[in-house]
Specification:
By secondary structure, the protein is mostly helical. The chain is built from 11 helices and no strands.
Length: about 260
């Protein structure tokens, strides 16, 4: 899978979550008692951001920690610009997670009829770029692919933080709770991917590209299983586990229904 298609897959996933959150926010904004509206929207924002962060982290954590092996299988052992491509791969993976974290907030702002608040992300992004790009040029003494990429990633991260801060202000949420409910759970996939990073890099370096692809596939299955165990044991609440089980049963029921109809 190429890098653009990886980003496209993440973006499509984010759009689907926004399609769900926007009408939900509109309903809450219109139907909830004004005294309870902010609380209900705040809970919706926290839940949407939590699930968005977990889903995105599960995808990009492996990309960040396994950047070297992935690029080696993708582009070959004679990886061009290795010292530039691998760090950029890591930076863009992490920046993508921060970008996707803004989806829940922009959807809820649209549902509240405050579409103009989306400028809290786009305008700071441009302003930070106006700072980070010249800073990268000054630090490295010339324009480089790494400097430009790092400047773009830093601008994305900073502007995403501005929007999330704005959401906490609008919905009267505490930063401590946001970090505990949303940000910290998103770290767990990185712990699992990081634990597998050294074995994956070592094995891929010793085999050819096709065998390396097999190693990445096996590692991905192990990563998925390990991530599921960690999330189920230490991260997900009993309510989330119950809802997840219901979704699995629903999916199996639909699959069996289609199989019977065929």
């Amino acid at each position: 899978m190429t890098r653009p298609s990886q980003n496209d897959a993440t973006e499509r996933s984010g759009r689907k979550r926004r399609v769900v959150l926007l009408p939900a926010a509109s309903h809450v904004d219109a139907a909830t008692d004004p005294s309870k509206k902010l609380h209900a929207l705040g809970e919706l924002y926290l839940r949407g951001s939590r699930y968005s962060n977990l889903c995105t982290a599960a995808f990009v954590a492996a990309l960040a920690f396994w950047a070297g092996p992935i690029l080696q299988v993708w582009l070959g052992p004679a990886l061009p610009m290795r010292d530039t491509l691998i760090p950029l791969f890591v930076l863009f993976s992490v920046a993508m997670q921060m970008h996707m974290l803004t989806g829940a907030g922009t959807s809820i702002l649209r549902g509240m009829g405050r579409v103009y608040e989306e400028f809290s992300y786009s305008i700071p992004n441009l302003l930070f770029l106006a700072i980070t790009l010249p800073a990268a040029r000054w630090i490295q003494g010339r324009w480089t692919p790494f400097g430009i990429g790092a400047a773009v990633c830093l601008a994305i991260v900073c502007s995403a933080c501005v929007l999330m801060g704005r959401m906490l202000w609008v919905l009267d949420l505490r930063l401590k709770r946001f970090l505990r409910v949303v940000i910290v759970p998103g770290v767990t996939p990185y712990l699992v991917a990081g634990a597998l990073a050294w074995p994956v890099a070592l094995l891929v370096a010793q085999v050819n590209r096709w065998q390396g692809a097999g190693v990445l596939l096996a590692a991905g299955l192990l990563y998925a299983a390990g991530g599921f165990v960690v999330l189920h044991r230490w991260v997900l609440t009993d309510e989330e586990k119950h809802k997840g089980l219901e979704l699995v049963r629903l999916g199996l029921g639909v699959f069996r229904g289609r199989e019977a109809a065929a």
